[in-house]
């Protein structure tokens, strides 16, 4: 049997607690209670009823509010874990990620990396949690909104006695209802914007039913929001990349498939100056020490000409110069480049002098570009320096040999071969920061450190987002739902003549105090008692 | 009635499962950067080798190409290089070309490495675009490209000499 027929003749879906039409209590358990549970109008939540096939079981799992709440709690905890340390995409690419986490944050950082929290928000389990929450939203809403809609649509004006007297607000009056009194009550209800329905002299007054849809409108907004998030995975909809660019460097803008290039002419880092800036800043400067005034990348944007073959030297046409500052992005073709990070004073060149150890005489300058060192530096008059090996990020490896950890000059080291008129065979010298070794015996000459040149590095976020309007729309609908459900109350008043009595009952989904006051107004001077709160301990609203 | 309910629920669940499945799939591919599909044409590129010669992948149609991505600081790359060189000597007259692409290091580092290891096949430096096109993450990685220009196989990690030989045998035209 799929249906329950009420005494009044209305056919209700199985599992219904209160008849959709007359309000008779259909479940025996519910009959013992003094008040009926009006949640979802006593309708049959569809999940509660059938539990037969695997599809029904999955459905019922997601339909549960308890499951939904747990999903939200788990997601909250997981999301907060991802904010303890920066995500991988936000760390500077100066070294492998595992090394960075360990170096910056110690064993906790290592654990963080090992557990995969450095990419938490795109991990499969996180996405599954979000998806489960989305599914739960859809199913739980469907399972409740459909029966609720049915109940409210099918409700009859004359509700059964058992329904009326089990309402929280209820009263009986031994009075004869005169037309005048009825007219007065009806007028008062209309004034309060109630919509009236009449049947056999019984009255149902109802207002703000739409407030009941608030939570479902809210869920719809959330689902649209999640769909927007999902669309970010569709190619071409969303780009979020980071571009690290040294001063003087030109690179393809990631995400544009090599169509656009950007050159960093200069990175500017300005702080407020005590002497130069206005007095209003003095307090802040004294308090904080340094206060940054400006992060700026002076950039030149290029467009690539002709067919794009990776690796081929691009033929670039300049589009424009632009200064990129925080919140003042460079925009091109749907892409926006935001100033997001920087690194000051990265070593770019290192200067040496060839020096006679005994006399201290110096022969010529050797300036080594740390990104592209020459193989030989000819100093003239028979003096020559050859770079035998270069280790940009020097370390001794497991075998105790000099090696490099990466190609970024964090700790440059060189093996030089110095040719001089005295030593035409060459002398070998190992030079690193604050180190000067002579691995193949005593030398007559050495490479004296003569200074470094540095460059600033800028980091720009490359962003393209065609999903933003969908996410915004979802957010808007979400808020409409919240307002709809929060600022209006769904209120109903029943008035029935039974034998020689007048029964009144009322229900609201929230703010009982407000309803009470409203009803006192409506029934004043009518000779009929307004419905009274049957809950002994009055709850403060 | 019951049947209708089952069908509705199945359809709704299926639609949502599809959406979730697609999202997870797209996300996984994004992470792995899987830009190379076996059996499909290899992305074309142009690079200049250390001797100044220009190499365009599409111009090697008719030959098998053993495409190796490496760096001087990468130990497994260093270990497999002599095997590649040995096998290159065997296979170069049989229509197998080796192209070794360094991951954006300085010319000095690459030239010294070549001197030390005595590589005779073309070595070129890529500043990033080719690696991006091939979705390179860990090094070394080797792609086998047949005479039609299609990717036959990709291998991440160190190779021993036998494997190098088998690979070259595989792409011999």
UniProtKB/TrEMBL annotation, chain A:
One of its GO terms (biological process) is cytochrome complex assembly. Its main location: membrane. Residues 65-520 form the ResB-like domain. It is a multi-pass membrane protein. GO terms for cellular component: membrane. Pfam families: ResB (PF05140). Keywords: Cytochrome c-type biogenesis, Membrane, Transmembrane, Transmembrane helix. It is found in: Membrane. The chain crosses the membrane at residues 67-85, 124-146, 216-234, 468-488. It comes from the Bacteria. This is Cytochrome c-type biogenesis protein Ccs1/ResB. It comes from Mesobacillus selenatarsenatis (strain DSM 18680 / JCM 14380 / FERM P-15431 / SF-1). The lineage of its organism: Bacteria, Bacillati, Bacillota, Bacilli, Bacillales.
Automatic annotation (TrEMBL), chain B:
SUPFAM superfamilies: Thioredoxin-like (SSF52833). InterPro entries: AhpC/TSA (IPR000866), Thioredoxin-like_sf (IPR036249), Thioredoxin_domain (IPR013766), Thioredoxin_ResA/DsbE_sf (IPR050553). This is Cytochrome c-type biogenesis protein ResA. PANTHER family: THIOL:DISULFIDE INTERCHANGE PROTEIN DSBE. It holds the Pfam family AhpC-TSA. GO terms for cellular component: cell envelope. One of its GO terms (molecular function) is antioxidant activity. Residues 36-173 form the Thioredoxin domain. It is found in: Cell envelope. The lineage of its organism: Bacteria, Bacillati, Bacillota, Bacilli, Bacillales. The keyword Transmembrane helix does not apply. Gene3D superfamilies: Glutaredoxin. Keywords: Cytochrome c-type biogenesis, Disulfide bond, Redox-active center, Signal-anchor, Transmembrane. CDD domains: TlpA_like_family.
